[in-house]
Write a structure and sequence with these properties.
Distance between the termini: 81 Å
Organism: Hibiscus sabdariffa (roselle)
InterPro entries: AP_beta, AP_complex_bsu_1_2_4, ARM-like, ARM-type_fold, B-adaptin_app_sub_C, Clathrin/coatomer_adapt-like_N, Coatomer/calthrin_app_sub_C, TBP_dom_sf
Main location: membrane
Helix content: 55-70%
Strand content: under 5%
Subunit structure: Adaptor protein complexes are heterotetramers composed of two large adaptins (beta-type subunit and alpha-type or delta-type or epsilon-type or gamma-type subunit), a medium adaptin (mu-type subunit) and a small adaptin (sigma-type subunit).
Largest sheet: 5 strands, antiparallel
Subcellular location: Endomembrane system
Radius of gyration: 36 Å
Length: about 800
């Protein structure tokens, strides 16, 4: 009987069939190492491809190191490249293996083929092993003097790599001086560009410790070097041209004739097909003429056409980059671009990020001569199927209205938006009408006539509802139903989740009360009562302030809450002029795209929310929440504010809590007495609580924030945080377990969880600690909201004991 046929294993090079596969490769490579038979290089290629394939998918093939090196003794450039790739990959993690490659790489550095010499030198410098730097000096010195430009180009970058491995070795070998000589004398422009890039980096790093390096760095922007590079700029690659142009922006000409010479020399660079070269040239023109107002104005006119051409002749990504720079220029000189506003009209097939930027630019270039055309175009966008763009277009119309003097037609357009049967259009229009009335109160009659027909039930967005409430309070004397609309809103106080709306509602009811007291009295009493009991600190404080000032003197309260108002002439800008100037100085960089100076997104103290590797699925990074505390705690902390001096004395003498709140009723407001809050029951936690990360992540996303507070740490606790693991052990001893942690000094982030004893109720905590300020930002989420305050007290107590003996 024949034995059963064995199943065939897949021989795919990316899927090895077993552990013996690597051993088979090793044997085959060894057999081919010394062979000179015809076609042996083709066989080696196939084996090398398998090795590289295995290495790419993470299979350890380091045991083949010796055989790969032996097989590299060939003139086949493809085999050399694959061998260098293999060697570079394993030399970084295994310095002992790197030592074995030195001999054959040094040998290849003297090969007859310049391509092999360059590849070998690049691989040798890419080993990045500190104890092998002595083997780099000789090959680099030879490479810088090589007759082939490719080898010299590689050698220049090799010098920079050597500097980052061992700066002293690089400087002692006098490589910077050699690079300077090459930069000024080499015939190949790519070698010159590499020398310039390497020298800038080396001398900038050395300048802080060496006066000579500082002088050399200044010499790079001398007239001799700048003119030498500019005279050869047409020979450079696009990347090298950008490098040279960036250097030219740092040059300070000694006289105005030099400025014109440089601009004349670079005139044709404005017509270059590459956007980076054009923007770099524009930066040179702008920087050189900053001190020459008239010429600077002419520069704006000159650079306008090339930039507008780039916007319409590239990909959306390039258009956005160029538009961002145009946007910066438009903000500085809108009058220059006012006649070219049609270039900023949105095309139907443009991505939304390009459209949004164009809308901002249309807003900036609008003036008396083009406002009608621009507003007409923007109103067309309000019906756009892209809702965010429709919103932005309505805001743009409002911004134009706020910066123009003749706003008759614009106001009519905004009022038409209010009559459209689209919730988001109505919402945006309400916000804009509010701002319009603050600047142009003379339009109140026309606006209020339309706003009065809008039902508050149909407005759901917080900002829009707040704007409508503001108008109801500010113009309640002109709106017949204003007190009754406000009263209905107060009755639904608990259903309103936005603190901004509740704050506006308090103020609007107060204003309405001063204008129409009989109709608003009950609504004011209900609003103040609800506000004092509100869980949001700002709402609570405002209601308390309004109540106490009414109790003191109604006339004073009216002068404070509803004084005569002057029209707002200028609305605050979101960015200071200093920030804008800083961005302009960083023209042709990411600062322009981000619309913020580089230090705001590079320096640690200006970075966004803390990020760390152990984060569980970006649980709450950047999450914006109201600063919420429990109403019980608010009442306990602020009850003293409700008492007069005499009442405080009575309280100290032992009178009851209710007696201390014996405040006379004001105009029938019916303020309730503050109840005596019982202390919460003692909370007990499960010492053996368990929760897997995926469940934690799911619960964190689903649960609302119960408490958010800032805690102060003791100096002992801050000192103990040099070892964050100590905090994890400490909190675990209090049955509060850490599920993720990370960060580095001074910012640390921890995620804790705890479980209620004999119940499955979970408490989730995000704790961000800054050791510099000694503060901890704590957010707590709880499945059982009623015990969140008790858990907060327990957590605060446990954290306060950290670091104490």
């Amino acid at each position: 009987m024949a034995p059963p046929a064995q199943s065939q294993r897949s021989q795919s090079p990316s899927q090895p069939s077993g552990k013996s596969e690597v051993s088979d490769l090793k044997l085959q490579l060894r057999q081919l190492a010394g062979s000179r038979a015809p076609g042996v290089d083709d066989s080696k290629r196939e084996l090398f491809k398998k090795v590289i394939s295995y290495m790419t998918i993470g299979i350890d093939v380091s045991s083949l190191f010796g055989e790969m090196v032996m097989c590299s003794a060939t003139s086949d450039i493809v085999l050399k490249k694959m061998c260098y790739l293999y060697v570079g990959n394993y030399a970084k993690v295994n310095p002992d293996l790197a030592l074995l490659t030195i001999n054959f790489l040094q040998r290849d550095c003297h090969d007859q083929d310049p391509m092999i010499r360059g590849l070998a030198l690049r691989s040798l410098c890419s080993l990045r092993v500190a104890n092998l730097v002595e083997y780099l000096v000789g090959p680099l010195g030879s490479g810088l003097k090589d007759s082939n430009s490719y080898v010299r180009m590689v050698a220049v970058i090799g010098v920079l790599k050597l500097y980052h491995i061992s700066a002293s070795t690089c400087v002692d070998a006098d490589f910077p001086s050699t690079l300077k000589h090459l930069m000024l004398n080499d015939s190949d422009t790519q070698v010159v560009a590499n020398c310039l890039s390497a020298l800038q980096e080396i001398w900038s790093a050395e300048a802080s410790t060496s006066e000579e390096a500082s002088r050399e760095r200044e010499a790079l922007i001398s007239k001799l070097v700048i003119y030498y590079l500019l005279n050869r700029i047409k020979e450079f690659s696009e990347w090298a041209q950008c490098l040279v142009l960036e250097l030219v922006t740092k040059y300070v000409p000694s006289e105005s004739s030099e400025i014109f010479d440089i601009m004349n020399l670079l005139e044709d660079r404005l017509q270059h097909a590459n956007g980076a070269v054009v923007l770099a040239t524009v930066k040179v023109f702008l920087q050189l003429t900053l001190s020459m107002t008239d010429v600077h104005q002419q520069v704006y006119e000159r650079i306008k056409a090339p930039l507008l051409t780039l916007v319409s002749s590239g990909s959306p990504e390039q258009s956005y980059a160029v538009l961002s720079h145009l946007h910066l220029l438009v903000m500085r000189a809108p009058y220059v671009f006012s006649s070219d506003y049609k270039h900023f009209y949105c095309q139907y097939n443009e991505p939304s990020y390009v459209k949004r930027l164009k809308l901002e630019m249309l807003t900036a270039v609008a003036n008396e001569s083009n406002t009608y055309e621009i507003v007409t175009e923007l109103c067309e966008y309000a019906a756009n199927v892209d809702i965010p763009i429709a919103r932005e277009s309505i805001r743009a119309v409002g911004k134009i209205a706020l910066q123009q003097y003749d706003v008759n037609a614009i106001v009519d357009r905004l009022l038409q938006f209010l009559e459209m049967e689209k919730d988001y259009v109505t919402a945006e229009a309400l916000v804009l009408v509010k701002d319009l009335l603050r600047k142009y109160p003379q339009w109140s009659h026309d606006c209020i006539a339309v706003v009065g027909n809008i039902s508050s039930k149909n407005v759901q967005e917080p900002k829009a509802k707040a704007a409508l409430i503001w108008m109801l309070g500010e113009y309640s004397q002109d709106m017949q139903d204003a007190p009754y609309i406000l009263e209905s809103l107060v009755e639904n106080w608990d259903e309103e989740h936005s603190a901004e709306v509740r704050l506006h509602l308090l103020t609007a009811v107060m204003k309405c009360f001063f204008k129409r007291p009989p109709e608003t009295q009950s609504a004011l009493g209900a609003a103040l009562a609800a506000g004092v009991a509100d869980f949001h600190q700002d709402v609570h404080d405002r209601a308390l302030f309004y109540y106490r000032i009414l109790r003191y003197n109604v006339s004073v309260a009216e002068r404070v809450v509803n004084p005569p108002k002057q029209a707002v002439s200028v609305f605050a800008d979101t960015q200071s002029s200093e920030i804008k100037d800083r961005i302009f100085d960083e023209f042709n960089s990411l600062s322009v795209l981000y619309q913020k100076p580089s230090y705001m997104f590079t320096d640690k103290e200006h970075r966004g929310p803390l990020e760390f590797a152990d984060e569980i699925g970006n649980l709450s990074i950047g999450e914006a929440t109201d600063n919420v505390v429990s109403s019980q705690r608010v009442e306990e902390n602020d009850k003293d504010l409700l008492l007069t001096t005499a009442e405080k004395e009575e309280t100290r003498a032992g009178h009851s809590q209710q007696a201390s709140f014996g405040i006379d009723d004001l105009l029938g407001l019916g303020m309730p007495a503050v109840p005596n809050v019982p202390s919460p029951p003692q909370l007990k936690l499960n010492t053996k609580a368990a929760l897997d990360p995926s469940t934690f992540q799911q619960k964190w996303r689903q649960l609302p924030i119960a408490l958010s507070q800032e805690l102060l740490l003791s100096p002992q606790a801050v000192a103990a945080l040099t070892a964050p693991q100590a905090l994890l052990r400490h909190m675990q001893s209090h049955s509060i377990h850490c599920i993720a942690s990370g960060g580095q000094s001074p910012n640390f982030k921890f995620f804790f969880f705890a479980q209620k004893y004999e119940e499955s109720s979970n408490y989730l905590v995000e704790c961000i600690i800054n050791t510099s300020s000694g503060k901890a930002q704590v957010k707590i989420k709880a499945e059982d909201q009623s015990t969140s305050q008790a858990f907060s007290t327990l957590f605060e107590s446990a954290l306060s004991k950290f670091g104490t003996p």
